Each structure stands twice: as structure tokens, then as C-alpha cells.
Amino acid sequence: LDIQVTILNVNDNSPVFMQTNLTAVVPEDTKVNAIVVPRGNLSASDADPDIIYYELTTIVMGTDGYFAIKGVNNPEIYLQKALDYEKFNLTTLVLYARDRPVGSLEVTNTATATINIYIEQADTKPPWFLPCTFINMDKSICISSRYTGTVNIYEISMKPLILEPGPIYAIDPDYLLNEKIMYSIVGGDPDKVFSVDADTGNLTMNKAATSLDSYLLQVMATQANNIQKYSIASVEIKVVSKNNHPPYFKTRIYNGTVFAGLDPRSFVFQAGAPSTPLMITAEDDDFPNV
């Protein structure tokens, strides 16, 4: 008697990942839609001839929505939203592999793989002049105030000029890279009265100013390795007359006379000269014509 036996396959095997723990380093400036973990590193196998269904989740708060898989049957991970190193530099993803679709009433076997994603800071920001004020909540843009200073007309200062709110100084906000900053004057000084030290940002004088007009300099800070990363700051230098003397009153005591019953805002007259209004005046030897 010949007996034919048919073996029915039972779903008794779980999917298996080649690696259950992976690490990937993703540059901050990676383009959206770029593949960050290829399919070959993530695919699972199943001893049962089943179609495998994948699902990706994020377990680090605030990092949801940045990474996704190409499809329910394609575990390839791609970048879904632009990265910002200031927001986060590490996240952990969990990839699920199931031998039945999500929501299936059949017995489902599941495997998981953990993917640690490290964000590598990239050169994405131009220099910031300090001090500066953040204009957005994520602190990615910082705007500096105008630098101001004064010089005496017809005089050359032999030392770096003192400015407010502080010396000219810029930093690379991509602080892990901390690229060297170079300084230059790119406008506002047609007569070349001023110079800026390329390395320190110190502002000095080449020659004396011969006019009381103010200078509105434009100082550029660039990264030494990439001149396309730059910022411009305004530096206002006021030219003033030399001021070595304090003002003084022509006399220490003034004597005046008033009459009872005068209306408000009536003149006070000089004592001894009731028809001459009392005038209090001061002089300054630095300003003989004022």
C-alpha cells in the first residue's frame, strides 16, 4: 500500500536579522531623502517562506520624524527631515520585522534590531560676531549689534581702538569644528584711515582723520578654510575734536534779582543791573569757538 504524505508548512519560525545592533554616523548636512542605512544591512530572513513586513520607530524624545524606511517591505532607512546638530546629536531607532502584516489575526512572529544614529556636526553656519542676540527659539541665528568708537581729529592712535560693546570678535558657531576666523575691512573707509588685524580683529589707524564726519566701516569675518562662510558687522567710528579740558563757569558765583509778583517764566535780572537778564555761561578751552 503506497501512502502519500503532504507536509503542511506551519509558521513556526521568527524572522532573523543579520545584525541586531547597528551603528551609523550621519553628517549633519546630509540631504533629505538620502539613504543613511542601506537595505543590505537591515534585511531579515525567515526560514518559513513568508513575506516580511517592517516597521521603524524612534525611542528618543524629540527625534521622531527624521528617519523613515522606504516601504513596508523595504527596510532601507533614509533621511526624511533636515538635521540640526544643535537640536540633537544622537537617536536610537528600533526596526521591527514581522512575518504577518500589522493588524493580522494570524499568529505573528517578530524580530527587532536596534540602530544607533550619531549625528556628525558639519560646517553649516557662518561666523557670529559677539556679543549677539538670538532671534529664534532653536538658537541657530544670532544677530550682533553695531560696534562704536571715537577718534580725535588730526591724531593717530598708536593702540587698538576701544570699541563698545567690546572688541571686534567673531566665532565659528559650529563649535566642534571651531574653524579659524579671519577679519578684513570691506567697505566704509575709502581713504584707508583704518586697518583691522586679520587674526585678532583689533582695529587700528593708518593715518589721522581730517574731517569730523563719522566712518561706518563694514568688517567681514570669514572662515579661513571657506571664505563662502562669512558675516558682516558694522563699526561706527565718530571723529571728534580733542577733549583734554573740562568746561568751567566764567565765575563761581552769580547774583540775580527778582521782583515780587512776577509771572512764571519771567526773567531773573543781574544784581545791580535790573534791566539786564542774568545769564549763566560756561567755556571750554578745547572748544574756543563754541
From TrEMBL:
Example of a GO biological process term: homophilic cell adhesion via plasma membrane adhesion molecules
Location in or out of the cell: Membrane
InterPro entries linked: Cadherin (IPR039808), Cadherin-like_dom (IPR002126), Cadherin-like_sf (IPR015919)
Record keywords, A-Z: Calcium, Membrane, Repeat
Xref: Pfam families: Cadherin (PF00028)
Cell division listed as a keyword: no
Record-level GO cellular component terms: adherens junction; catenin complex
CDD domains per record: Cadherin_repeat (cd11304)
The keyword Calcium belongs to this UniProt entry's keyword annotation: yes
Superkingdom per UniProt: Eukaryota
Every Cadherin domain range: 18-129, 145-249
Gene Ontology molecular function terms on file: beta-catenin binding; cadherin binding; calcium ion binding
Official protein name in the record: CDHR5 protein
High-level lineage: Eukaryota, Metazoa, Chordata, Craniata, Vertebrata
